Amino acid sequence: MAIDPITMALIGSTVMSAFGQIAAGKAQQEASKLNAFNVETDEVRNKIQTLQNSRNRREQYIANTSTNNTMFSAMGRDIGSDRSVEAFFKKQKETTAEDLYNIAYMGEAKGAKLQQQATAQRIEGRAAMQSATIGALTTLASGYYEYQTIKQKPLNPTAEWENNGSN
Q1: Separation CA 49–CA 75 (nearest Å)
Q2: How much of the chain, in percent, has pLDDT values that exceed 70?
Q3: What confidence tens digit (pLDDT) does each residue in 14-44 have?
Q4: End-to-end CA, the chain
Q5: In terms of Cα–Cα distance, which of 99, 126, 121 is closest to 43?
Q6: If you count DSSP H runs as helices and E runs as strands, how many of each does the chain have, helices first?
Q7: Which residues contact 11 (CB under 8 A, 6 or more apart)?
Q8: For labeling, which of 70, 82, 140, 152 is most exposed (least CB within 10 Å)?
């Protein structure tokens, strides 16, 4: 049994459409994987920046402590026994500890947000691929249905018109 050109075109376009949908889904999935990788790279940068900010704050504390020691000594204040100097250094240390905690907390919060974004990108990619697969299967099923319809009904528009016109 030879397949007529219209049926052949129908089958060909159906298969091409299905393959196109799969290819588009795969491309979206790959793009989502790349986006997730980029977000994870940002997460690593965030960790490095957080560590750098903490180090900078500790270095600032050390430099300030040294400067204040020098200043209080130059003023003739006894650093070991002067309670107001001791309170000043205690407060400076507490402030630095709070700053370091806040730097770490903000770094962790941003890292968690970036990890969620990466996960969402991967899920989006999988969903796009699943949607494309379902679309392709639907296209193939529709194409098969149309093929069966055409196969059962010979294409002769003139005969149909003549039959409808004579009623």
Answers
A1: 38
A2: 89
A3: 999 999 999 999 999 999 999 999 999 999 9
A4: 33
A5: 121
A6: 3, 0
A7: 3, 143, 147
A8: 152
Convert 27-65 to b/e letters by CB count within 10 Å (16 or more is b). Answer: ebbeebeebbeebbeebeebeeebeebbeebeeebeeee
Alpha-carbon gap, residue 77 to 85, rounded angstroms:
8
Report the sign of the C-alpha dihedral through residues 74, 75, 78, 79, in that order: negative
**Looking up tokens 């989006």, which residue turns up?**
124
* One-letter amino acid of 12: G
**How far apart are the C-alpha atoms of 149 and 167, rounded to whole Å?**
24
Decide if 114 contacts 40 (C-beta within 8 A): yes
Distance, in Å, from the CA atom of 129 to the CA atom of 135, rounded to the nearest integer, reads 10
**Regarding predicted confidence, which is higher, 155 or 25?**
25
The amino acid at residue 132 is A
Whether pLDDT at 164 is above 70: no
Closest CA to 125 of 62, 59, 31: 31
Quote the tokens at residue 66.
Answer: 């040294």
